Sequence to fold (410 residues):
Amino acid sequence: MNSLFKNNYEDVKPLALKLRPQSLNEFIGQEKLLGENGILRKLIENQNISNSIFYGPPGCGKTTLGEIISKSINSNFESLNATTASLDDLRAVVERAKQNIEFYGKKTILFLDEIHRFNKKQQDALLSYCENGVVILIGATTENPYYTLNNALLSRVMIFEFKSLERKDIEIILKNGIEKLGMKEVPQAVIECILDISQGDSRIALNYLELYKNSCTGLDSEEILELFKERKSSYHKEEDKYNLISAMIKSMRGSDPDAAVYWLGRLLSGGEDPRYIARRIVIHASEDIGMANPEAMLVANSAMQASERIGMPEIRIVLAQAVIYLSISTKSNSCYMAINKAMEDIEKGDLENAPLHISNSAVGYKYPHDYKDNFVIQDYSLKKREYYIPGDNRNERLINEKLKKLWGRK
Fold:
């Protein structure tokens, strides 16, 4: 890059890029991860960063931290964006990484933005490179990695969840931006409005600050504030996504198909990924319906599979069918409560070994199919537990009667 272009580029760069922190000490927010005793800070400072996923909303510092890591760790640094990167791009990075190991003895960190956009084939290729240590992966995503990444890849990375920046953090960033822009004063009402609009996204906050400065010559503060307030009232952010999905789930739980379909429509019209919606529908099928109507899981899972193959606008019909079916279905949270109780006991230290007769050696195991009605009484755990409590609905009342007959439950 020649000096003339570099100087001109510096002049036109967005404020968010001009203010991007260059070190951990300059980084604002994410105290739990990057504060004085933050685990991620310690890993970076000790040069011990391993394959990781940075997961969180836009404008919270994921990409910025990736660049800081590139300056803090004695490694080669490569960056790709999964929305545009191909397998050939990935292979080219790996080849350069191999050369860096061979000639310079240096590892390579690959920062992969929007990692959730990689398909299964791309994720599988990425997995092999991470496993053999050719590259250290740092993936950034706004989507929950437990839903969007392969289990095999998830098992080989550390996941760090980033939170939206707090209001006080955005205020500090705005103050720095005001100084950078050489502005003498910004009305507090304008600052408060920007804070409301940004909702924890530093990039949006700085973009609006820059917009305010550029508008000052033609409009007065009151006119600009009025424009900002209009924008605030119509702004759809990541936060809206979670509010709308919550409204849809609660409407299904409350057996109101009309409200549930309305919130589904709001999500789809707002551009939400149908696959994300489908995953939440599957969770609802177990959490709120479960054994009251096991077919609900089949319907939900079929909708999720369809969402992987069919896009908008047709997928809206499939999702609507699933939402309506689950809404009118009989409800029970017995499966949800059962696993929660079991996990709670395990976390408290209830770590029983598997009894010998049902362990891998299976000494003394009674094979139920050798007995009448394919059932025989034997202990499947040393401690008697009752986690699954059938709900009061037609299907689970029958299940309850069966459990009473088999195990003498009350």
